[in-house]
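ARCHIVE RECORD
Type: protein–small molecule complex
Small molecule: flavin mononucleotide
Source of inputs: curated submission
Record status: active
Notes field left blank by submitter.
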Amino acid sequence: MAHSILILYGSYRSDRAGIRLANYLVAEFTARGAQVELVDAKAIGLPMLDRMYKEYPAGTAPEPLETLATKIRGADAFVFVTGEYNWGMQPGLKNLTDHFLEEWFWRPAAIASYSAGRLGGARANLVWHGTLSEMGMVVISSTLMVGPITAALDEAGVPTGEGGKALARAFPRFADDLDWWTEAARRQREQRAPPY
Ligand SMILES: Cc1cc2nc3c(=O)[nH]c(=O)nc-3n(C[C@H](O)[C@H](O)[C@H](O)COP(=O)(O)O)c2cc1C
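STRUCTURE (tokenized, with ligand):
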């Protein structure tokens, strides 16, 4: 059965560039046979965190939260596409992530960062490792760091130039790593129910 992967992206900027990387990843994971869905925080229109999803009495959470909770619970793996604002996380993606907790548990997560600079969002990438780990995901060691983002991917999400070549070279190992852990976690969940 195909692995179901959620690709999560959280920039709300009008001129956002990271959507190129999100679209690239959707296309590449789909080409490998995964069942992929892009979760675009801006398109969903999530509120700023007030109550977490689990703090609403059953059946009363706002519709976007209910729909997203179902998608997160049903996914086999997650890919977080993160830009870097002032050496840190993008608030839109963090806001989306914080609405949930147990819904994320017992699945692998991969981090793909990018930025306008040559470091490819490395500082935000690093911060996400600890956060996703705290939220019950197993963060794979392979990662992607893409920069400068607009030189590495065109508007259609097609790799261009040296940065694009580097991304295309790095992607197969990143995907293989996620695939292996996705399969391992899925088998283990089938074999033995998560302890909590
Ligand atoms: C508020 C803000 C802070 C930024 N800080 C950084 C930074 O610390 N490091 C960096 O490499 N780029 C930084 N940039 C440039 C971003 O990497 C670039 O604008 C990128 O395209 C942002 O992602 P987005 O277009 O998907 O929103 C910053 C951009 C903004 C808007």
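CURATOR ANNOTATION: The CA atoms of residues 5 and 77 lie 5 Å apart.
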